[in-house]
Design goal:
By secondary structure, this protein is mostly beta strands. Strands 2, 4, 5, 6, 9, 10 and 11 form a 7-stranded mixed β-sheet that branches. Strands 1-3-8-7 form a 4-stranded antiparallel β-sheet, with no helix packed on it. Helix content is 0%, strand content 52%. The mean pLDDT is 94.
């Protein structure tokens, strides 16, 4: 199983950016998938996740720091997860990682995820 994240870049505060994460060797819809980020000198932190709920379809979850600004979605036909980031702030600057786990139960701790992408840098200037 391999995850590859892309779409990072240098933007100004208030701009938008969309990250993508493509999975090979595994079907995304089989388990929960998530975005984490890590700024220099800080621990890896949860950004958001998405998992399948048999009643509601894909259900997203967000960290309070990004709620209302970021949107997570999945295109299961393309085996791709997205992170649409809007109203970006300098404090969003970090390497952003995608992750996946074998079951649908969402977790907010990095240790709960089985597979990781290589990370993509997002830099927001003020």
């Amino acid at each position: 199983v391999q995850l590859q994240a892309c779409g990072g870049g240098l933007v100004q505060a208030g701009d938008s950016l969309r990250l993508s994460c493509v999975a090979t060797g595994r079907t995304f819809s089989r388990g929960a998938t998530a975005w984490f980020r890590q700024a220099p000198g800080k621990e890896r932190e949860f950004v958001g996740a998405i998992s399948w709920n048999g009643w509601s379809g894909d259900v997203p979850y967000y960290a309070d720091s990004v709620k209302g600004r970021f949107t997570i979605s999945r295109d299961n036909a393309k085996n791709t997860m997205y992170l649409q980031m809007s109203s970006l702030k300098p404090e969003d600057t970090a390497v952003h990682y995608c992750a996946a786990k074998a079951v649908q139960l969402v977790g907010r701790q990095p240790a709960m995820y089985d597979y990781w992408g290589q990370g993509t840098q997002v830099t927001v200037s003020s």
